[in-house]
Amino acid sequence: MKTDIELSVVLPVFNEAENIPLLQEEIVRVLGKEIVFEILYINDGSTDDSWKVLREIARRDHRVRLINFRKNFGQSPAIAAGFAYCAGEYVITMDADLQNDPADIPRILDKLKEGFDIVNGWRKNRQDKLISKKIPSFFGNKLVSFITKVKLHDYGCALRGFKKEVVKNLRLYGEMHRYLPAIASRMGIRSIEIPVHHRSRRYGQSKYGMKRTFRVILDLISIKYFLSYSHKPLQIFGGIGLGLMGLGFIAGLYLTYTKFFLQQAIGNRPLLFLTILLIFLGFQIITLGIIAEMLTRIYHEGLNKAAYSIRETVGFNDENFNDRP
After folding, report:
1. Strand pairing partners for 12?
2. Measured between alpha carbons, how far is 274 from 289 in angstroms, rounded to an integer?
3. CA 30, CA 106: separation in Å to the nearest integer?
4. How many other C-beta atoms are found inside a 10 Å radius of the C-beta of residue 62?
5. Dist CA 81 CA 170 (whole Å)
6. SS3 for 196?
7. Which range, of 143-157, 189-203, 262-276, averages the lowest pLDDT?
8. What is the DSSP track for 113-145?
9. CA distances from 172 to 19, 41, 73, 91, 95 (A)
């Protein structure tokens, strides 16, 4: 479906009732009348007055579209919903807490028009606490860059720009929104990172805490598997399995030599049990790899289940809304 909307701004919302009206004013003022745009707010199960505030904004501005989740699914599903139902040729994502500056949107849009597929924001002068935010973020970004081989200063910045054809081919789960540049790298995209403004939080409380660290680490393991082995899982499982079987085989040769050439008893040796364990464990891991290979093929041949559930929408044409995903 061809659209005349040039830009979609995607904003996940979770308990940001005080920030939303100010953010809406800033975005409209920055984009002005020269750009045909839409603003998609995805209410991620807010428990404050966010949905009420959003409905009032949508009533006054026809460019605002609303998606209301049945419960809190998380930022990645919220962004995924925005990607699925946005109509613009270019897509901007940002947080709804006023810490991202809408004044950076035109600069990001210019870079997209230059030919870049993804423009990543870099909070070079980050206005957050040093111990709980900046230091963990610094080491986290180094680790993610090393593992994914996509080097960025700031993986946690929500302010990013995308071309439409990129976001329509992305699927997000868990906390994987922060790894979007790495996930998209499999598509052969051109990306760039530019410094953006970052502001102190004015209202509300941060939704990010140290408890997310463990989930982020697990998702990082998933990303590494996704980038390197999602199309060939047998290579990683098979490699481990063959390695274990190889060690078991070498240990078995040593025990055979000890038994028949040195005439020594091996029945009570722990190495005998370790040898049996290595061989059987290696065989089981290879079998697991074959199962993973089959599941991967099933996945790539048509699994299309969303990671969220929508209760209500506002501002969408029903026919177009149903056709977009």
Report:
1. 42
2. 22
3. 8
4. 9
5. 11
6. coil
7. 143-157
8. HHT-SEEEEE-TT--S-IIIIIHHHHHHHHHHH
9. 26, 17, 12, 16, 17
Q: CA–CA separation, 214 vs 44, rounded Å?
A: 22
Domain spans of the chain?
7-229, 233-300
CA-closest candidate to residue 8, choices 37, 35, 28 = 37
Q: What is the pLDDT of residue 211?
A: 55
Question: 7-229: what CATH class?
Answer: alpha beta
Would you state the torsion angle of the CA atoms of residues 198, 200, 201, 207, taken in this order, to the nearest 10 degrees? 60
The whole model's pTM is what?
Answer: 0.74
Supply angle C-alpha 40, 71, 314, rounded to 5. 35
Positions of E strands within the chain: 7-13, 37-43, 64-69, 90-93, 118-122, 160-163, 191-195, 310-314
Could you report the per-residue pLDDT of 124-156, keeping only the tens digit for each?
Answer: 888 777 776 777 778 777 888 888 788 888 888
The amino acid present at 218, given as its one-letter code, is: L
Q: How high is the pLDDT of residue 171? A: 75
CB neighbour burial string for 173-193, b if at least 16 within 10 angstroms, e if fewer: ebbbbbbbbbbbbeeeeebeb
pLDDT at site 127: 74
